[in-house]
Structure formats: C-alpha cells, structure tokens
Amino acid sequence: MDDYLEQARARVLGAAAAGTTLRLRGGGSKDFYGGDLRGDILETAAYRGIVAYDPSELVVTVRAGTPLAEVEATLAASGQMLAFEAPHFGAATVGGCVAAGLSGPRRPYAGSLRDAVLGVTMMDGRGEVLRFGGQVMKNVAGFDVFRLQAGALGTLGVLLEVSFKVLPRPEMESTRVYACNAEQALELMNRHAGLPLPLSGASFESGRLRLRLSGNAPAVQAAEARLGGDVDSEGAAYWQDLREHLLPFYAAETPLWRLSVPSTRASFADSQTQELIDWGGAQRWLRTTHPAETIRARAHAAGGHATQFRNGARNATFQPLAPALRALHLRLKQTFDPAGVFNRGRLYPDF
Known about the structure:
Structural class: alpha+beta
Number of helices: 10
Helix content: 25-40%
Shape: globular
Radius of gyration: 21 Å
Strand order of the largest sheet: 3-4-8-6-7
CATH architecture of the largest domain: 2-Layer Sandwich
CATH class of the largest domain: Alpha Beta
Distance between the termini: 29 Å
C-alpha cells in the first residue's frame, strides 16, 4: 500500500482501539447534508487521480479524492459524460458525490448515480482494503455490495476507488418552455413521459414548465416540432443552476425538503409552501414552514418519503426507519464498521 493507505489504515485502527470517531472529508461540499459532524477529520482529497479510462469501454475508474470537475473535463474531452449529473455544491470529490448519492435533472432518463457505479475499492473499519464489483458493465459475480456505498454518507468505510459507467454526450440539446400552472405541468410531464421522445429533463417552477431534449439532431428537431412551446435560449444555464441549487428558489432560509413521490401526485404547494417539481414529477423540492411531522406524513400518504435537506434539525434529516429496515442498517454497519469508527451520526443519530 502507498503512504496514504498506510496512514489511513493507522488512523482507522487507532480510532477503533480508542473508541473514537473519524469524520471522512473530501472537498467538504456536502458538510451541510445529513446529521451532526462528529470526530476527527480524515482527509481523502490527497488520494486522487484517474486510474483507468478507455473511452471505447465506456468505463472510468478514479480515486475517490479526485475532484468531480476534473473527471467531467476528462470525459468531455472524449465526448462522454457522467450522465447522472451529480451536483458539485462547490469543490466536490468523487468520493463525496458517491457518499451523498445525489443525482441531477437527467436522473429519470439516464439512471441514477447508484446505477452508474460498477465497482468500488474501500477500507473497512478493520483497516482492510476490500474490492466489490468490477470495471465492466456486465458483472454478475456476488451481490451489488458496491452500490450500498451510494448514499451511505461514508458510514460504511473509506472509499478509495470508484468505477463508473459513462455515456456519450448528446449531439444536440434543446429546452422548450411553457407557461402553465402546477397541475397542467404535471399532466404534461406524465403524458410526455410515455411517448418516444428524447427527454433528459422535466422541471416546473414559478409558472414555467421546462422540457430538455437531448440526442442526435434529427431526433431533437422532430421532438421540438411535436412538442411546440417556446425555445428557452437560457436553457443550458437553467439546468446547470437547477443541478447546483443556484436558482432563486433555493436561496431562501426556510427549511428545504426533498420529497420522492409518484410522479402523478398533485402539487404540495399551499400558503406555507413553495414547490419546485423535478424528475418529471417524481422529485419535489419544498420550501415550507410546516413542521417536519406534517411534511413526512404528507409524503408517506403520497406513497413516498421526505428528506430535510437544508436549514432544519441536523439530527432528523432522513425519514425514520421502519424496525425491520433499521435492523438491516445496523447489521450492515456492524459488518463493515464493527467499532463504529466512520461518520457516526451522519445518517441516523445513534449509528
């Protein structure tokens, strides 16, 4: 093992022996997300670099401390991309983006971050380096343990390397915009989702529905003619600002909630709630002064769940787990991190 791995192993074993916690940190861009930040910082940004990339294989393997922007620039030079559009929120690293598990506007049409992860190398709470998955798109050996790392917020171990599936960048992109209300937008989103259209984004806020089309020029142009609407000349900037939470909607100090619900669910907007609809209706961002219990109850009644994303109580970010699911989480934590070394409290207060 190189110097970084030896030093990381010593820190992990030392924390396990002392019964203390390590706080894994890449670029710090997701420090706001999840529960309390506890323990001594174990920096991961020094372990960086692209390990393997052959554009013809549509796979890239990178060390977890690599800046996400660096990976995206390398792929763009070969006409490829990470299709899940993970937000940067600043100086994001690959490890941080996997740990947070967040995907952008293209997610319903090109797959989530979790779908794109083909394999990981990680260090567990015993200081052992483990490898799961592979570097090919067809890999049926064992369970998809590597995908557990997506959204685990570093609670299962130190990510060292990640292999991603990449996709070609579209030849052409275009955004159509329509003036409508939320109910009309949801009806259009769901109607268009069932048609053979090159959709790559569907979002509604402030009385405007935007549909992004991506693909080869003939397909995009044919879809434009079929869908009508107006051309949004600032469409590319809109989707980037949506991805990075730079739209005015996100600037308020009221609690920001992220809801995952069926795409046909009616709008949640009311006198205390502003709503931004993304993912063709399946993701709802709410700015609301309603208490957490009300928001979670509404999400549950709609067949979904709610995450208190920003400006709320840090120890109540995620939907409480049902007993059976909680037991499964605890068993996974015990398996990978028996001494409770990693990011204790980031997912749930007691583990």
